[in-house]
Design brief:
mainly beta, 245 residues, 4-stranded mixed beta sheet, 42% strand, 19 strands, rod-shaped
């Protein structure tokens, strides 16, 4: 707190006993005007006229930021939160906090969506709002080649896939993987891979799991063919017949 003089003469720079100066304003005083008061002051050569001043407390700047968030496609939005920079005097928030919202929904696809602050005020603060963003990331979907079985010598069955992890009513990915097997009609008994290749979707991280085709034994019937001979003659050649090869 400082003083100024008007009326000094003869090269004087101050009075012999300067007045004391004080104000009722504190560090914690809110926005407004507070008196700066002079008391006392004297000099043998001067009639001292004191004029009080004022201390104006102006608004502090507080920045309120919508904190960035992330969520997986198909999940509910996370709780939206704010952070402060510039609060003083032990304040932990402004009198009226801003509202916070985002355009992202449970069904919103992968991408970045604004988190918007609106309003917010306090008698002691100039409020600066900074919006944030909500990032929607890919959900994990597992696509599995379903195991199949066939009998040796028959055509391959239809190869099918199943999904685990689809959300938002999705029934498949945008580009389904191709599916194939090395097994042929002529492939012998054993296990053959069913392989998935490719597959993609803007909203999903695709995890492929191969399956297997089991070729089982075919049933073959071997019959001893009936024979005939005349009494007293040698036995005829004994023969067999097949059904099911």
């Amino acid at each position: 707190l400082t003083i100024s003089y008007d009326g000094l003469v003869n090269g004087d720079t101050k009075v012999a006993t300067e007045p004391s100066i004080s104000t009722t304003a504190l560090v914690s005083s809110g926005v407004g005007t507070y008196p700066i008061t002079l008391t006392g002051g004297e000099d043998a050569n001067y009639e001292v006229d004191l004029k009080n001043g004022q201390l104006e407390v102006t608004k502090a700047l507080v920045t309120i930021t919508a904190e960035d968030k992330t969520k997986v496609y198909g999940t509910i939005n996370p709780t939206l939160t704010i952070s402060y920079d510039g609060l003083v005097n032990g304040d932990n928030k402004v009198a009226t906090e801003p509202s916070i919202s985002t355009t992202a929904l449970v069904s919103s696809g992968v991408g970045t969506y604004p988190i918007t602050l609106t309003g917010g005020e306090d008698a002691n603060y100039e409020v600066d709002l900074k919006d944030g963003q909500l990032e929607v990331t890919k959900a994990l979907v597992t696509i599995t080649a379903e195991d199949q079985t066939k009998v040796y010598g028959t055509a391959n069955p239809s190869l099918t896939i199943s999904y685990d992890g689809l959300v938002n009513g999705d029934t498949k990915v945008a580009t389904e993987p191709s599916i194939s097997t090395t097994a042929l009609v002529s492939s012998g008994v054993g296990t053959y891979p069913i392989t998935l290749t490719g597959g993609e979707d803007a909203n999903y991280e695709v995890d492929l799991k191969d399956g297997q085709l089991e070729v089982t034994k075919a049933l073959v019937t071997i019959t001893a063919e009936d024979q005939t001979k005349v009494y007293g003659t040698a036995n005829p050649s004994l023969t067999i017949s097949y059904d099911g090869l």
